[in-house]
Amino acid sequence: MTHVWYCAYGSNLLARRLAYYAEGGTPPGTTHTYPGFRDRTPPLKTTPLTLPGTVYFAWQSLVWPGGVAFYTDRPEPGWPRGAAGRGYLLTRQQFSDLLTQEMHRIPGRTTDFDIDAVLDSGRVQFGPGRYETVVHVGDLDGFPVLTFTSPWDPATVVLRKPSARYLGMLAEGLRESHGWERARIVDYLSELPGVQGNWELAELYGLAG
Hints:
Shape: globular
Order of helices and strands: EHEEEEHHEEEHHH
Structural class: alpha+beta
Largest sheet: 6 strands, mixed
Strand order of the largest sheet: 2-5-1-8-7-6
Number of helices: 6
Number of strands: 8
Strand content: 25-35%
Distance between the termini: 41 Å
Helix content: 25-40%
């Protein structure tokens, strides 16, 4: 197995946002510089995906600011099911380099992460950080679909309202990756925990325009 699907469901729905992990650089509005992949070959394929769980917003980002997106395959009762994602077909090394950068490390300076351990158990927590838990959410075209998330229990997590700038980026990513119209983007975002009850529909329509 030479490749895996990385499934993005947050800001990396936008290909240009993922490119900072792949090619290196500092995204606009941030102070963090990504070193990039050792192998900067573009993804072999990209495709829209739908995961069986839920995207929710938590933590308190200093970059956006506000809550940011996380995925759970164990949603709370009443949470919507069906998380919109985007698959990027990466080499195993590229996926490891992506995880390494999520852990604020430099690719190549440590041993690559054991992807087979994720395939064997379905979930591995490689570190205590926000995106350091890897989940095997399915398979596509003979390759496993993997995503990053937090180790938090959805039953006890503190939901946070995401910022307008962050939701605007997600809306753009949903349009780019799934081809959705504004009404469908608003319907999807409005039901997500952390958005529901914190954003009015009219406000979301403005962000998704």
